[in-house]
Design a protein that fits this description.
The complex is a heterodimer of chains A (about 450) and B (about 425).
Chain A: H1 28-36, H2 41-66, H3 75-86, H4 96-107, H5 115-133, H6 142-157, E1 159-160, H7 162-185, H8 187-216, E2 220-221, H9 231-258, H10 262-277, H11 280-294, H12 303-329, H13 332-340, H14 345-360, H15 362-375, H16 390-396, H17 407-434
Antiparallel strand pairs in A: 1-2
Helix pairs in contact in A: 4-9, 5-6, 6-7, 7-8, 9-10, 9-12, 9-15, 10-12, 11-12, 12-14, 12-15, 13-14, 15-17
Chain B: H1 2-10, H2 16-19, H3 21-54, H4 84-118, H5 122-136, H6 140-154, E1 177-178, E2 182-185, E3 187-190, E4 196-198, E5 203-205, H7 206-236, H8 243-261, E6 263-266, E7 269-270, E8 275-276, E9 279-282, H9 283-310, H10 313-321, H11 326-356, H12 368-380, H13 383-412
Antiparallel strand pairs in B: 1-2, 2-9, 3-6, 4-5, 7-8
The chains are: A mainly alpha (about 450), B mainly alpha (about 425).
């Protein structure tokens, strides 16, 4: 404020300098590399180690992958093609085995004229899953999800239409029993009736009904025995069924473990700890070797069903622990608020506790599912043809593909990766969608 | 009219068993008890009937019969003349061996991968993310089979080490050789050995016991030195220099003992058929170990990452504000808190690894499942006994590990008022 004019001093610049780019080290790739790769001696060292590791892996893998051969019908032909194209001694991946045997990886030894049944089951699986996975679809679609297990059973194993119908009829009868008993006897007796009527139906009348109906109207499909199942058909059958049944069972076990009733709690804890304490493989062996000892003499049921039961029990014990974690993470006030509202135990669980507890446990539950799906490969040890070892061994044992080593492993590994990775991404989506706090 | 007079006096009606919360839980428990007992009785009855029809009995006497099969990988003496019980012991030791090795290796891999995944280095972070995601989303069986295939396919056969112009040579000054069947390493030998003591089941080397005793003694002495230094520091404010004392206490007694025992390494030599001398590690053990370590390592990496991320940023900022260097911040502030978050899931990973080691069957490693639940079961046909024993042993191992780890967990737990 000394009254001097802006241009009175010749050394004061009166125009802005034109903007200049930042120095080369502070922009673009160089800046990014300096910050993320070479920010200190340790980081530089790590970067070099990482780059060397990648180079070594690529050096080993890239030629092998670049020399891939798809059009070959045997291992020998593969080698000839590679030798002709890239010179003697060149290595190359022989994906011809996947091109020729992909059906075996997917369907096992399921008769090829019936592949459409498997495909249809697979497509319908998504229709049945859609309303469960995405809440903005019409709720009516859930009815299809309810009857889907029976449809899948019929399509995959074949046989009379009336067997799944008789099985479904049990549920319908239970519902009817509840409906008609409720006004007459009160809710407790109605619930008992709703449980007892289907059990009596399944035990004594369902077989008779299915036989009778089949006699009158023989509808059905050609039967496919369980021994023909294999590959990803088997993995998905076991995996999806196990997932569908282990979640409700796991929730019940978790509630049992949290229960105030001493006996219920002890039994739940005993069951969970026993299952978690032994490897799945021993349970599968129990299913294949020991179950005959514990069932009435002369009974024998399908090996896939036994495996599904064991896998379900195994996974349920893990899910029970995950859900218990979710229940424990809920603040005490939530339980007290439910009590204060006068809700009874089941209402409180259904409306207040479970929605929150399950939301907390989503990551754990989904990783249990992923574990279950990966564990379906263990069925090879009870003689079922899993996609990893069972089918791969069958292919490598064949004359044409003798000596093919890595390709039959990599193809199922890729499919497993896609499915499991997809499941984990879905769990992240769900977690984000259900997030209610704004932290 | 007795009924009418009775009811109000007793104050108890049958429907109260269901509608009165005081009695309802009792009712439910009685029903559950009846159902449970009924179920167990049904199963046991079926089992008795089935055993009768098959003409079998239920006893464990078969364990003392001759096993009659060989086991290539063993920690204690065993021949095909030994009993089934001894085969069980070999299997158990093999399971524990691979579980222990696997846990150690998986922890090392997991901690490195977890910390590096958090590092600011873009490249290394990405590599570790790929490692974790790829390994976790593919079944363990595949990793075991792949590792085994890699070892048997990529490593040279024994014949390559032979002849005037061998195509493969031993590494590390002719002390180790990797072949497609096994790996040989030098073995520790003692020229003035103290011998073995027979504890009934197997022999224990006195040399080993002596070495363990000396190491434990050194560690205790080292601790005493440090405690003394802390006392001096608290009294005077100056911490006495202890590193040379620690170094001496930890190394000198062990060196002296090894000298006294005449410790030297026995190098393997290629004989007519096989390598003689040295310790052999079969490829099945190697493959199982590596695969278990890589697989479980990915899970541990995620646990470590979550543990470190769970410590709020304010903690490390507070430590920096106090003037602690990054290394000390990690050691004194972040890690002790992160460990509390890390330990419980880590325990369950160790348990998983131990249980997953039963996949040894895929590569022919003779673990508990391979001996007791495999050949013994098939030879004697005693499925019920073998499977029950197998499950009991695994259950005991699992509960044992979790008990030990729970004790440790309690000792590092936040002590709340």
């Amino acid at each position: 404020m000394s009254g001097t004019k802006a241009n009175s001093a010749s050394f004061v610049r009166d125009t802005m300098l034109s903007e200049q780019d930042p120095p080369i080290t502070e922009r673009g790739v160089v800046k990014w590399a300096r910050e993320n790769l070479f920010s200190g001696p340790l980081n530089t060292f790590l970067t070099i180690i990482g780059a060397v590791a990648i180079y070594i892996i690529l050096k080993g893998l890239a030629p092998w992958l670049l020399h891939s051969v798809w059009n070959a019908n045997s291992a020998a032909e593969c080698r000839e093609i590679i030798a002709a194209a890239y010179g003697e001694g060149a290595h190359g991946a022989c994906w011809g085995v996947v091109r020729e045997r992909w059906a075996q990886f997917l369907y096992g030894f399921y008769p090829s004229e019936h592949y459409w049944r498997v495909n249809l089951t697979f497509i319908l699986l998504f229709v049945a899953l859609a309303p469960i996975l995405f809440a903005n679809l019409p709720r009516k679609m859930l009815w299809f999800s309810v009857i889907y297990p029976a449809v899948a059973l019929l399509l995959l194993w074949g046989g009379s239409v009336w067997v799944p119908v008789a099985a479904l009829a049990g549920f319908a009868l239970g519902w009817l029993a509840y409906r008609f008993a409720l006004p007459v006897t009160g809710s407790l007796a109605a619930t008992v009736a709703a449980v007892l009527v289907p059990i009596i139906w399944w035990l004594f009348f369902a077989g008779w009904f299915a036989g009778l109906a089949h006699g009158i109207l023989p509808l059905g499909m050609e039967q496919v025995p369980s021994s023909k199942f294999g590959g990803f058909l088997l993995s998905l059958t076991i995996g999806v069924t196990g997932i569908a049944f282990s979640l409700p069972l796991g929730v019940v076990l978790a509630l049992g473990r949290q229960s105030d009733m001493f006996l219920v709690k002890t039994l739940s804890v005993g069951f969970i700890e026993f299952i978690r304490g032994v490897p799945l493989i021993t349970l599968l062996f129990t299913a294949s070797l020991l179950l005959n000892y514990f069932l009435p003499p002369g009974t024998n049921f399908d090996i896939i069903l036994r495996v599904i039961i064991m896998v379900t029990l195994f996974s349920a014990a893990y899910i029970a622990e995950v859900v218990r974690g979710g229940l424990a993470a809920l603040p005490r006030g939530q339980y007290e608020a439910a009590d204060a509202l006068g809700l009874d135990y089941w209402k409180a669980q259904q409306l207040i506790i479970m929605p929150q507890a399950l939301k907390i446990s989503i990551p754990g539950i989904v990783s249990s599912f992923i574990g279950l799906f990966k564990d379906t490969t263990l069925v090879i040890f009870v003689g079922l043809l899993d996609p990893l070892k069972g089918i791969t061994d069958a292919i490598r044992g064949s004359f044409e593909w003798k000596g093919i080593y890595w390709e039959p492993f990599l193809f199922p590994a890729l499919i497993f990766f896609l499915i499991c990775f997809g499941m984990s991404r879905y769990s992240m989506y769900l977690e984000n969608k259900l997030k209610r706090d704004h932290r | 009219m007795a009924i009418v007079a009775d009811a109000p006096k007793a104050g108890f009606r049958l429907s109260m068993l269901i509608y009165d919360t005081r009695y309802r839980s009792l009712t439910i428990q009685v029903i559950v008890m009846i159902l449970f007992m009924g179920g167990v009785a049904w199963l046991v009855d079926n089992a008795i009937q089935n055993l009768q029809t098959l003409g079998k009995d239920f006893n464990f006497g078969f364990l003392w019969n001759r096993a009659g099969y060989d086991i290539n990988q063993r920690l204690v003496e065993y021949s095909n003349d030994s009993t089934h019980a001894r085969a069980l012991l070999i299997g158990l030791l093999n399971t524990l061996l691979v579980a222990f090795l696997g846990c150690v290796a998986a922890t090392i891999i997991g901690v490195f991968a977890g910390v590096l995944r958090l590092s600011k280095n873009w490249l290394v972070g990405r590599i570790m993310t790929v490692y974790v995601e790829v390994v976790r989303n593919v079944p363990l069986l595949l990793w075991i089979l792949l590792t085994y295939a890699a070892l048997t396919e990529a490593l040279p056969p024994l014949a390559d080490f032979r002849g005037d112009n061998p195509t493969s040579t031993m590494v590390l000054n002719n002390s180790m050789a990797f072949t497609n069947q096994y790996t040989v390493m030098p073995e520790p030998l003692f020229s003035r050995s103290l011998g073995n003591i027979d504890i009934g089941i197997f022999l224990i080397s006195v040399d080993l016991l002596a070495i363990i005793a000396v190491i434990v003694g050194s560690v205790l002495a080292n601790r005493a030195i440090k405690a003394h230094a802390t006392r001096v520091q608290e009294a005077t404010g100056d911490r006495p220099v202890t590193w040379w004392k620690s170094l001496m206490v930890t190394t000198l007694p062990l060196l002296a003992l090894l000298l006294a025992l005449g410790f030297h390494l026995g190098y393997p030599e290629l004989g007519r058929f096989n390598f003689s001398g040295g310790t052999e590690i079969s490829n099945s053990l190697m493959a199982l170990w590596l695969a278990l370590a890589i697989y479980t390592g990915a899970y541990i990496a995620e646990i470590v990452r979550a543990g470190i991320m769970a410590i709020s940023h304010g903690q490390s900022e507070a430590a920096f504000a106090l003037g602690l260097r990054p290394g000390r911040t990690m050691n004194l502030v972040v890690l002790p808190q992160a460990l509390r978050v890390i330990i419980p899931p880590l325990i369950s990973q160790y348990l998983n690894l131990t249980k997953n080691s039963s996949l040894a069957i895929a590569v022919g490693y003779m673990d508990l499942r391979g001996t007791l639940g495999g050949i013994t079961l098939n030879q004697t046909g005693r499925e019920l006994e073998c499977m029950m024993l197998l499950m009991l042993i695994y259950l005991a191992i699992s509960l044992g590990i979790s008990a030990i780890m729970n004790v440790y967990n309690n000792s590092v737990k936040l002590k709340e008022r």
